[in-house]
Amino acid sequence: MKKIVLIISIITAALKIQAQLPFTEILGRPTDNSISINVYFEQTNQVYFEYGTVSGIYTGSTTPTLTEARKTLEADFTNLQPNTKYYYRTRYRKIGELLYSEGAEHSFYTQRALGSSFTFTIEADEHLYDKKGHRPLYELAIGNQVKDKPDFMLTLGDVFGDDHTPDETTSSDMNLLHKDYLQYFTRVCNSAPLFVCLGNHEGENNYYLNQTPPMNIAQYGTEWRKFYYPNPYPNNFYSGNTDQEPFNIGFPENYYAWTWGDVQFVVLDAYRYQSISGVVKPTEWDWTLGKKQYDWFIKTLEMSKSKYKFVFIHHTHGETRGGVVNAPLFEWGGKSKKGSYDFDKERSGWGKPIHQLLIDNQVNILFQGHDHLYSYEKLDGIVYNTVPMPSDSSYSIGYTDFAQKYYTGTSLKGSGHLRVSVTPDCATVDFVNAVLPKDEKPNLKNGTVSFSYQVCPTPTATQVIEDSKIEVFPNPANDKINIEIKDIAINQGNIILTNQVGQTVVNTEFENNGVHAIETTNLDAGIYFLTVKTNNRSFLKKVVIVK
């Protein structure tokens, strides 16, 4: 009965899309020279896009393409300039029509330059698929984000899926669950690219993936998420999961990293790699990033030169609760429930718990969702910021259930989103409230900020070697890379070459200035990262190997 009511409500919402919007537009994967767009029409149309750097003047366009009814069209705007605002519009015509109609003009930014100021927004746990999520309130939260004019928007999971009935939920059900959000996301994400971080209720967990593949909720969820929402995959701009999964999934687009202005962004997946499989859900040490994601995470942090480092995850421990209170436990902190340090036994050969990686690499903020309340906590200098629901009309679901037992620091009732405003000097994080008109009070209205804090860059102990002191050639390379080190006081140093997933493929020592060569004959073609470390100084260069 519950499932029938859910499907009826989603179908009603889908009909609302058709009545109000001729089509939806979702931007994604912004880079320094491109961006993707995903459009959805209920009817078959011929579609193309126009874009340019001046409002109303479009110097670029895509090729007209026929879109099938109720199918998405994904297109790329290419050859763009970095750190630039672009304007675009969608042009479309139905079969049999001669003239193209035009959609409203929207805008977006390519990758911001170092030293730039910009804003982005975060929400989590929308839960429109169950009684926790209130649609009119969520519409207000979306409207508040539109007013913020963010460069992009992140959602931290528990958006699309409904894993409460995993054995009953069909591919058609998952289609409706994902399609349902088009009507909301298009209001923000026609101008602010969307980044999705996966939660537990998306159902994209390996204990579902391993059940009767490919006929399971995890397979359906991945397919429909990728159908409607373009998340990043590894290329010259983004790093992330390089695995190609079977049954036509390809890149799962589930964890990834990029830089924007002075910020290193890292989005983690807490659910796809549990250390057990089958019908029993994981507990305690079963929850894991998996060794490959863990290694990639380390390298991403270690190679980052950014002033700020922000990490996003649905929850640090998968299915438990809290932020700082449980941070010392299991893979995240290294301790078992009884207090013994068991990381080396449970994660033999890994190195350090995740929280220690955050400390060592001077991560500023860890953003998480899952608990349906707002919380600001600090541990070892790192902010743990739990993001509230944007759609809880009681304004207190998570606060009532979890605040006293699982949280320290500042915990607040309320619904809404986070607005993060980045400047070269500091980043400001605001909790922007979403409040229904009937619930407004003199000191709490829709769009007001109920809590705000700042983080400022921490000076790094490692100095960066000037580019003029090191030359790397040839680049692209084939069988050999030469590294010429000029006029640096050296006791001893290392030349390290890593691949896109963070695996070290070359690590050699040197003692003098001059030209040092490393052999690359046996390495696969692709993108690599060359690090030179000496005397508490470092140099990082992206290199390409061709065959």
Can you walk me through this structure?
- The mean pLDDT is 91.
- This protein starts with a helix and ends with a strand.
- Helix 1 (2-20) packs across helix 3 (171-179) and helix 2 (135-148) runs parallel beside helix 4 (182-189).
- The strands form six sheets. It has an eight-stranded mixed beta sheet, with helices on one face. Strands 3, 4, 5, 7, 8 and 9 form a six-stranded antiparallel beta sheet that branches. A six-stranded mixed beta sheet has the order 12-11-10-21-22-23, with helices on one face.
- The longest helix has 19 residues, at 2-20.
- Helix content is 19%, strand content 31%.
- The chain folds into three domains: 22-109, Immunoglobulin-like, CATH 2.60.40; 118-455, Purple Acid Phosphatase, chain A, domain 2 (4-Layer Sandwich); 463-545, Immunoglobulin-like (Sandwich), CATH 2.60.40.3080.
- The chain is an alpha+beta fold and 547 residues long.
- Strand 25 (470-473) and strand 26 (480-485) form a beta hairpin.
- It contains eleven helices and 31 strands.
CATH topology of the largest domain: Purple Acid Phosphatase, chain A, domain 2
Which percent bin holds the helix content? 10-25%
Q: Kindly, what is the distance between the CA atoms of the first and last residues, rounded to a whole number of angstroms?
A: 59 Å
Shape: globular
The CATH homologous superfamily of the largest domain is called Alkaline phosphatase D (PhoD)
- Classify the secondary structure makeup into a structural class: alpha+beta
